[in-house]
Design goal:
Chain B: Pfam families: CoA_trans. The structure holds two protein chains of two kinds. Chain A is built from six helices and eleven strands. Chain A is an alpha/beta fold. The relative contact order of chain A is 0.20. Helix content of chain B is about 15%, strand content about 25%. The longest helix of chain B has 9 residues, at about 5-10. The chains are: A alpha/beta, B alpha/beta.
Chain lengths: ~230, ~220
């Protein structure tokens, strides 16, 4: 088995460069690559294009990269929880491409799967369709959407092995599996790293072929955005 | 006028046994509280879960288990987890039978606007455009008028569109209306104490009134 293990987040992200295109797994703050984001914050890079369903919150996740002005462009579906994001967007400092969530997921999936474009009904008749090819199939209109790929994809899993195989937990899976496949270099951080052979092959969600580097993460905060409980 | 909970309660009466359902954020989330217990339905969360359960007790809170509104949740028996791509394959593929979501405006031909106020609000569409483009049946929960009294049931939407010709039914704080395929809001029920005249006055789009319009009945 090829060993993909690196020592820590700093070593994993060291060759990320200015103006790179990055993908980040996660939905809200659930399943985000906390350690990699922290390591990126310590680097002197900017002009980044970040592809992520959300943009974190003001003081956590990708929100911290926005505060440091490392990000030139965000490609997301929903950015509601971030005042700094909204400020930079309305003032024109930040370029933003908002795309339907299913289209985002499928564009990333297509990128990893070698499908350059596909037709989807989402966004027909809206501003999302502006400048895009429309075509009718079986009496319904669809629009052409292109794949998304990244120089680096950062994903977070529950368990992983040294071969890069990954297992996610709960709804923290979300965009992580597709992004793992769509990164030229995919960096996986896991809560528990085990030797290859210890994970049940029947249970693996992301095959290690998509992962170039893996490390044992630490100090997970796993912040909850909307703690909602019943009595 | 109906409260938010009453709107949710009325929408719950539209739920049928055996349906897979996606509930949007806000009033639609409340619908889950009113689905009769004798119905077997499965709630889909577009971030990757079929089988949303009740909110957790304090000791069961799990940051790796949230709904599309980022609220902590639990899972029901027989639930299943999957990726966002799989989730939207279900939605786009027409496997989710009922979508309930909120709206800022609906037009008489069934267009919906609920994602953007130019120059003011730029939160994004999330999964709404995918949902409205593909669901078999779409029910909208909304306020009939804006805070300053302007109708939100319009001839055509003034805000950026989320989806075209897709809304099947509206439950507002004043009325239950069907959006006809040929265009127009057909009045089905009135909120208790609200007259047809008031609904007419507060509906800018074409309102169709046929015969006696009953008051909503909240007894099940």
């Amino acid at each position: 088995m090829i060993n993909k293990t690196v020592k820590n987040a700093q070593e994993a992200v060291q060759d990320v460069f200015s103006n790179a295109v990055l993908m980040f797994g996660g939905f809200g703050l659930s399943g985000i690559p906390e350690n990699s984001i922290q390591a990126l914050l310590g680097m002197d890079i900017n002009g980044l294009t970040c592809i992520s369903n959300n943009a974190g919150v003001d003081d956590f996740g990708i929100g911290l990269m926005l505060q440091k002005r490392m990000v030139k462009k965000m490609i997301s579906s929903y950015v509601g929880e971030n005042a700094e994001f909204e400020r930079q967007l309305l003032s024109g400092e930040l370029e933003v491409e908002l795309i339907p969530q299913g289209t985002l997921a499928e564009r990333v999936r297509a990128g990893g799967a070698g499908i350059p474009a596909f037709f989807t009904p989402a966004g027909v008749g809206t501003e999302v369709a502006e400048g895009k090819e429309l075509r009718e199939f079986d009496d319904k209109l669809y629009l052409l959407e292109r794949w998304l790929k990244a120089d680096f994809a950062f994903v977070k899993a529950w368990k992983g092995d040294t071969a890069g195989n990954l297992i996610y937990k709960g709804t923290a899976r979300n965009f992580n599996p597709m992004m793992a496949a769509a990164g030229k270099i995919t960096i996986a951080e896991v809560e528990e790293l085990v030797p290859a052979g210890e994970l049940d092959p029947n249970q693996i969600h992301t095959p290690g072929i998509y992962v170039q580097r893996i490390f044992q993460g630490k100090d997970y905060e796993k912040r909850i955005e909307q703690r909602t409980v019943r009595k | 006028m109906l409260t938010k909970d009453q709107i949710a309660q009325r929408i719950a009466k539209e739920v049928k046994d055996g349906q897979y359902i996606n509930l949007g954020i806000g009033i639609p989330t409340l619908v889950a509280n009113y689905i009769p217990e004798n119905l077997d339905v499965v709630l889909q969360s577009e971030n990757g879960l079929l089988g949303i359960g009740p909110f957790p007790t304090e000791d069961k809170v799990d940051p790796d288990l949230i709904n599309a509104g980022k609220q902590t949740i639990t899972m029901t028996k027989g639930s299943v987890l999957f990726s966002s791509a799989e989730s939207f394959a279900m939605i786009r593929g027409g496997h989710v039978q009922l979508t309930i979501l909120g709206a800022m405006e609906v037009s008489e031909n069934g267009d919906i606007s609920n994602w953007k106020i130019p120059g003011k609000m730029v939160k994004g569409m999330g999964g709404a455009m995918d949902l409205v483009a593909s669901a078999e049946r779409i029910i909208v929960a909304m306020q009939h008028c804006s805070k300053d009294g302007q109708s939100k049931l319009l001839k055509s939407c003034t805000l950026p569109i989320t989806g075209i010709r897709c809304v099947d039914m509206i439950v507002s704080d004043l009325a239950v209306l069907e959006v006809l395929p040929e265009g127009g809001f057909k009045l089905l029920e009135r909120a208790p104490g609200i007259s047809v005249e008031e609904i007419q006055a507060k509906t800018e789009g074409k309102l169709i009134v046929e015969g006696e319009i009953p008051e909503m009945n909240f007894a099940s």
